[in-house]
Write the structure tokens for this entry.
Amino acid sequence: DGGITQSPKYLFRKEGQNVTLSCEQNLNHDAMYWYRQDPGQGLRLIYYSQIVNDFQKGDIAEGYSVSREKKESFPLTVTSAQKNPTAFYLCASRPSGINEQFFGPGTRLTVL
Amino acid sequence: GQQVMQIPQYQHVQEGEDFTTYCNSSTTLSNIQWYKQRPGGHPVFLIQLVKSGEVKKQKRLTFQFGEAKKNSSLHITATQTTDVGTYFCAGPGSGGSNYKLTFGKGTLLTVNP
């Protein structure tokens, strides 16, 4: 069953702790993306990767880091430098030559 | 950077009424995409428009791309409770790159049965 998986669905962390969100896809897509969604704000791009071992900052990269060591995986680390980390995080992927993005189910992060 | 403005932010309708959401860009778009996100869910691609003046239909949904390729609309005829959700438009990122998308803030549609 092909698709994008994000785990966990809900995540709670204490303020000051780093946390890594998982995103895995078995669609053989080259490009992967991380978005943050806040109520009334739409989707804002954090980081994206067009190919393995390469990634670029999006519009709101401060306080976040990523890696792309494998085509299937694009984990996002929310660091303690991110001032307002509580949000819904969505991972997406896109095949080459097609503009449509496929989204995972999302992780809702709450920092207490 | 590139901005895509979407209105209205919210729309509440009675079941059977029509619904329209509008998307506007200050720059010409090479294409525009529409996504739907059900409450508690994730965005799902609906359609992409590429040509000036293009109109596409999916059952009760009609999508239009403006002649100047700076605006787009999604119209739903005779809404049903299954139409509930947030509808987003998205255009290419800054510099016209298709690697990135710039999303509008979305229109939340609620339908009273």
Notes: Residues 30 and 97 of chain A are 10 Å apart (CA to CA). The first strand of chain A starts at residue 4 and ends at 7. Chain A is about 0% helix and 50% strand. The radius of gyration of chain A is 13 Å.
